[in-house]
Amino acid sequence: MDRTRELIENAKKQIELWKYSNCKITDEYRNFMLKLASGICPFCGSELLVINYETTPQEDCYKYACGHSLSKLTLSDTVNIQESVGMKLKRKGFGMLKRTFSGFKSSGDSKFTKGVNVEMTIDREHNEYHQVITDINTGEVTHEEHETLTEHSKK
Fold this sequence. Notes:
By secondary structure, the protein is α+β, with helices and mostly antiparallel strands. The chain has three helices and eight strands, in the order ααββββββββα. The protein folds into two domains: 3-73, no CATH class; 84-153.
């Protein structure tokens, strides 16, 4: 497929995707893409004909016969999402029976800049305390405690 047809088809695909998304598209950009999809130079209105195409990992540049050009930049970023959940079980007249926490926590320790994973259970009914902390990066257990709650409380 030649570059002109490729550019027109890509514009048509983008317009089709907008129909099924909640994206906010400016009128100026929508009109720009509609002209491209129609095979018209969005800058001067002449027939679209790509005479040169250059690409790099970050940019695609289309040069048109009318003298205008289009550069498409590709930007990317990584977003890390961590989750955690905590629960408490209470009994009327007794208060908290059991508390659990599982998931991500940030760490003040410079060795764990990306945080740690914490699995913790405090069970007053069965007098148990369990805590396992692992490094998010390596999965290595960095701290582990399994003891009675009364022993843990003395620390």
